[in-house]
Structure formats: structure tokens, C-alpha cells
Specification:
By secondary structure, the chain is of the alpha+beta class. The chain has a single domain, classed as Roll (Ubiquitin-like (UB roll)). The protein is built from three helices and five strands. Strands 2-1-5-3-4 form a five-stranded mixed β-sheet. The protein is globular and about 30 Å long.
Length: about 100
């Protein structure tokens, strides 16, 4: 188990190998995911505020969905980013009014 922090939305622990989206769901932390975690919509975007090395490397599909500017900022798709160590992420409010 490793520590996960979702900004001011909550914190807890997750299993190594879980996606950020799975960890959030287990902790009852809401992250939008309109495509159901299939790496096609980009709504589960999170911004990594801690060590990026504690997430599995990004694959080409994720990079294309995010775009180069978001990748440079440290954004990841929660449905694709697998946890390998303690992480800290922020959940942007892209779709909230």
C-alpha cells in the first residue's frame, strides 16, 4: 500500500499497480470519466503535484489525448496512470459550473 493525496479532496492509500482513477473510486473521491476509463475522452485529467516518477510512464495514446501542453504541465489521465509509489495530484474542475 502507498499513500495517495488528492489535493483538498482527500487522501488515503492505494495498491501498487492501481490506476489513479481506481484509487480515487476506492476512496470515494469523484473524478469525471465520461468514457469509463478507456483513454478516449480526457475528462479524468489530473495534475501531478508530487513526484512524477511514482507513476508508470505515459504511453503514446495518453499523450495524444492530453496534448503536449498538458503533458508539459504534468497532467495525466487518471484512468491510465498506474501508481508505483506515493503520489500527490490535484483534480482540476474542468467541467464544473
Amino acid at each position: 500500500m502507498v499513500a495517495v493525496q488528492f489535493g483538498d479532496r482527500g487522501e488515503g492509500t492505494a495498491l501498487v499497480g492501481q490506476t489513479v482513477l481506481e484509487a480515487a473510486k476506492n476512496l470515494r473521491i469523484d473524478i469525471d470519466s465520461f468514457c469509463g476509463g478507456r483513454c478516449s475522452c480526457g475528462t479524468c485529467r489530473v495534475r501531478v503535484t508530487g513526484e512524477r516518477v511514482h507513476l508508470a510512464p505515459m504511453d503514446l495514446n495518453e499523450e495524444v489525448v492530453l496534448g503536449s501542453d498538458a503533458v508539459a504541465r504534468g497532467d495525466r489521465l487518471a484512468c491510465q496512470a498506474r501508481i508505483h509509489g506515493p503520489i500527490e495530484v490535484e483534480i482540476p474542475a474542468f467541467f464544473n459550473a
